[in-house]
Design a protein that fits this description.
322 residues, alpha/beta, TIM Barrel, eight-stranded parallel barrel, two-stranded antiparallel sheet, 14 helices, globular
Length: 322
């Protein structure tokens, strides 16, 4: 089991310091969300570049970009430019987008999401191969241009839906998931369907999970993180964990008031989406998903000070257990 960490919406200098601490602590990867232009979120590609120039080898992932708020050709050029500078340390996560990046731009969710993500992967593959791209898809147009060179960048599909999980198994190098923990096997079955369709045997499975480690369980701090995940979690997954009614209230409130939406997240919903408790308890919860997951990425969005504390706790109590 490998471990990563998502750095949230801290300031740029703080994220560089957090990334250096995470690399020293033994984390395998760092992830930056593409939630711009939502309040407080920094540009992911500039952040990844700053981190890459101040770390040695830790893997850098975007979790995840989307084909609506930014044309995939622009995303592709940004990644190729980073690869030229930083080498083969990058992972490009692509998904259908969520409320944070799309709502401020008044972009309707979602315009043919499966086609959009499939076409995104196709365009990225051609771009990174260094060949001319003349692409006219259902969603994505791209007229006869090419990159300045060739690069090797794995493409992962990020999703909380069954159709894109199947697509990831069919065409992607990996999948980025963060469903309710009890729903994980259902998502992985969809991945296996896609693998069988493509004749492949495996892709990398990365599970993003809100994590709070302390004697008190960090439940309060996890509410804000869980609130962000709820609106784009499918109803069938919420039904599996009995969270439909609570999720509807959170989803409605987050449209206008994120702090209040976090307050509406009940403790049982935190337990459905997150790993929390003492270090020993968290290790046991991680062990329960270890056989299905290649890398677990810890999400935790409160203060920078608390994130430094979590990195230290992982270094001392979690990572050495695996």
């Amino acid at each position: 089991m490998k471990f990563g960490i998502e750095l949230g919406s801290s300031g740029m200098r703080d994220m560089v310091k957090l990334s250096q601490a995470a690399e020293q602590a033994g984390f395998n990867s760092l992830w930056i969300a593409d939630h711009v232009p939502a309040y407080m979120w920094r540009d992911p590609f500039i952040t990844m570049t700053a981190i890459g120039l101040n770390t040695e080898q830790i893997r850098l992932g975007c979790g995840v970009a989307n084909p609506y708020s930014r044309h995939v050709a622009i995303t592709g050029v940004a990644f190729a430019s980073m690869a030229e500078l930083l080498g083969e340390r990058l992972v490009l996560g692509i998904g259908a987008g969520g409320t944070l990046p799309l709502r401020p731009l008044d972009i309707k969710m979602w315009n043919k999401p499966v086609a959009a993500v499939r076409e995104s992967v196709q365009v990225f593959r051609q771009l990174f191969d260094g060949t001319p791209v003349d692409f006219r898809g259902e969603v994505i147009p791209f007229v006869n241009t090419r990159l300045f060179g060739k690069c090797s960048i794995p493409i992962h599909i990020g999703t909380r839906g069954p159709a894109l999980s199947r697509l990831a198994g069919e065409i992607a190098d990996g999948i980025i998931l963060n469903p309710p923990l009890a729903a994980l096997p259902a998502y992985l079955e969809k991945v296996r369907e896609g693998l069988r369709e493509s004749g492949r045997s495996k892709i990398e499975v990365i599970e993003f999970v809100p994590v709070g480690v302390s004697d008190r369980g960090k439940v309060e701090g996890l509410r804000a993180t869980v609130a962000i995940l709820v609106p784009t979690t499918p109803r069938w997954a919420l039904e599996m964990v009995g969270e439909v009614e609570s999720a509807a209230k959170v989803s409605e409130m987050i449209k206008s008031d994120r702090p209040r939406a976090a307050q509406l997240v009940p403790e049982h919903m935190v337990r459905s989406f997150a790993i929390s408790g003492t270090a020993r308890s968290c290790v046991e919860q991680i062990e329960a998903v270890q056989s299905d997951v290649d890398e677990l990425v810890a999400l935790y969005l409160p203060s920078t000070t608390e994130m430094f504390e979590m990195i230290s706790t992982f270094q001392r109590d979690i990572i050495p257990s695996f």
